[in-house]
């Protein structure tokens, strides 16, 4: 490993094997891990940027078995950095990534995932051991997962949320009922299916996790279906880049005012990108789409053509994974990415699910904490 000072002390260049990373002096000082800069217990900063001199520079660097020691002026402060930490936090390599890129720890999928749906028994997950770690990793990567072997009891879905976070209460309550009875006197009646959609696009922010838990399922049909919205958006981009761009560049509007005292609205694009082009969200719900007014006149027909094509991709059976929930089973979806639907049902019987919302920061927090725990154990 080699470390040298460049640009009159404003840059540290670190070479390890075939990898070379460059770090600005101000970045290194701001990210010092010493006890004067960071609280030992939780890692939070103890100082503000105003406490660091604006003319901070590096005057000396040395490498030994402990790591990389950097001396900062004008403070005259020595800080020890772990080379592995520096490599993991190197920056500047993301330039040139294509618009619509996704994070490395996400996996896009289509109907080919049908036989590999992430699933685990609830009682095993509640031991908070390896089964939970594996399931959480898969749910984070694919954006959805199933749970089996739960009790057939009202409110049991809260045990699913307890695995990783907290219920997000809305105007629908802590939970909502999805109950259907097929008319037994009219055997010709066929229940309508629902197009794959994301829930509550009219909220800002949207609930980022949805849980649906089955309590009764005696009606024929009514299978659940999920579609990877990221895979659908990227397929649209591959087919017609202009369609992808028009849906990402202009906001749609969503609205729900179906009860007294409630008028929920949001203004967000159907395909949401971060400033650096990362694909971070999809909102798709024809029932809640309000009049779109944020698209320029000369782009509106293109916007509608793109909206139509995205819907056709979402409806393509090659994109969907289907499964039937039996009593005591549940599934969880990342509501910023994965669309869900219900197939049509018919005949006699009942279908009763309970649903609730949560937030994926809890799920990601648990995943990252378990990753860190495994890493520390390995070291």
UniProtKB/TrEMBL annotation:
InterPro entries linked: AlphaKG_dependent_hydroxylases, GBBH-like_N, GBBH-like_N_sf, TauD-like_sf, TauD/TfdA-like
Listed GO biological process terms: carnitine biosynthetic process
Domain of life according to the entry: Bacteria
Keywords (A to Z) from UniProt: Dioxygenase, Iron, Metal-binding, Oxidoreductase
Transmembrane segments: none
Annotated ranges, domain TauD/TfdA-like: 121-357
Keyword Transport among record annotations: no
Residue ranges of every copy of the Gamma-butyrobetaine hydroxylase-like N-terminal domain listed in the record: 5-81
Co-factor requirement: L-ascorbate; Fe(2+)
MF terms (GO), sorted A to Z: 2-oxoglutarate-dependent dioxygenase activity; metal ion binding
Family named by the database record: Belongs to the gamma-BBH/TMLD family.
Protein name stated in the entry: Gamma-butyrobetaine dioxygenase
Organism whose genome encodes this protein: Pseudaestuariivita atlantica
């Amino acid at each position: 490993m080699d470390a040298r000072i460049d640009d009159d002390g404003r840059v540290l260049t670190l070479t390890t094997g075939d990898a070379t990373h460059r770090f600005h002096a101000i970045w290194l000082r701001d990210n010092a891990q010493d006890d004067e800069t960071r609280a030992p217990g939780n890692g939070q900063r103890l100082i503000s940027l105003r406490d660091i001199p604006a003319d901070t520079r590096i005057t000396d660097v040395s490498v030994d078995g402990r790591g990389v020691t950097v001396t900062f002026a004008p403070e005259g402060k020595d800080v020890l950095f772990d080379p592995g930490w520096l490599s993991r936090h190197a920056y500047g390599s993301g330039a040139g990534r294509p618009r619509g890129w996704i994070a490395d720890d996400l996996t896009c999928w289509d109907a080919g995932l049908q036989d590999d749906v992430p699933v685990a028994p609830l009682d095993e997950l509640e031991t908070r051991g390896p089964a939970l770690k594996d399931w959480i990793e898969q749910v984070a990567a694919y954006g959805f997962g199933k749970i089996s072997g739960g009790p057939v009891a009202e409110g049991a879905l809260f045990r699913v949320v307890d695995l990783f976070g907290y219920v997000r209460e809305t105007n629908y309550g802590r939970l909502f009922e999805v109950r259907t009875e097929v008319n037994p006197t009219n055997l010709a009646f066929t229940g309508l299916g629902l197009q794959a959609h994301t829930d509550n696009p009219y909220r800002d922010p949207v609930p980022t996790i949805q849980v649906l838990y089955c309590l009764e399922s005696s009606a024929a049909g009514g299978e659940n279906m999920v579609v990877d919205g990221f895979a659908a958006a990227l397929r649209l981009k591959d087919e017609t880049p202009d369609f992808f761009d028009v849906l990402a560049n202009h906001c749609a509007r969503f609205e729900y005012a179906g009860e007294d005292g409630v008028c929920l609205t949001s203004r967000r694009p159907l395909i949401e990108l971060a400033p650096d082009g990362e694909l971070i969200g999809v909102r798709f719900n024809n029932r809640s789409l309000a009049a779109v007014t944020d698209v320029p006149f000369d782009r509106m027909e293109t916007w509608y053509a793109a909206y139509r094509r995205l819907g056709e991709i979402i409806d393509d059976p090659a994109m969907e994974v289907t499964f039937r929930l039996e009593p005591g089973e549940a599934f969880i979806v990342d509501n910023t990415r994965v669309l869900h639907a219900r197939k049509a049902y018919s005949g006699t019987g009942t279908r009763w699910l309970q649903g609730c919302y949560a937030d994926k920061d809890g799920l990601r927090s648990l995943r990252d904490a378990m990753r860190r725990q495994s890493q520390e154990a390995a070291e």
